[in-house]
Amino acid sequence: MKSEREFLMVKPNSIRRGFVGEIISRLENRGLKIISLKMLKVSDEQAEKLYEIHKDKIFYESLKKFILSGPVIVIILEAPRAIEMVRHIIGNTDPLKASPGSIRGEFGLTVQKNIVHASDNLENAKKEINIFFKDSEILNYELDAQYDL
Fold first, then answer.
1. Nearest to 138, CA basis, from 57, 94, 76
2. CB of 20 within 8 A of CB of 9?
3. What number does CATH give the domain 3-148?
4. Residue 117 annotated among the catalytic residues of the structure
5. How do the domains of the chain map onto residue ranges?
6. Euclidean distance between CA atoms 20 and 15, whole angstroms
7. Angle, helices 20-29/82-90, rounded to nearest 10 degrees
8. Of 10, 40, 131, 143, which is the most exposed, with the fewest CB atoms less than 10 Å away?
9. Which of 9, 108, 117, 125 is catalytic?
10. Exposed (0-12), middle (13-18) or buried (19+): which is 30, by Cβ within 10 Å?
């Protein structure tokens, strides 16, 4: 089965609350391969590109302010059906509607500050990866578990 790439951002509140290891562990335990990862402070330009789809919405400025409020961790994950799998692991955007055991279901408090962001389709994954990563930062390697997929 062909692998696909997924973009995931661990948001500032997750870092402040100490959830980084738990989030990464859950992704790795499901067989998702991390092909790039870095901690950074999102720039205004990156925030505007990431949330471009919400530019005309009432919550845009508060969303942007939140993502600029502290460091984030950006990750590129790779696996067959990576987007579908990550969306399942993180749960619904609304923590109250997220499945028990999902990242947002366990740790999320509000819709806007919902612990993580992940791309919802291949096109957005490619766009969001390009906002935060250069091609030279993306690694290609094999995981032993890949032979079990």
1. 76
2. no
3. 3.30.70.141
4. yes
5. 3-148
6. 6
7. 130
8. 40
9. 117
10. middle
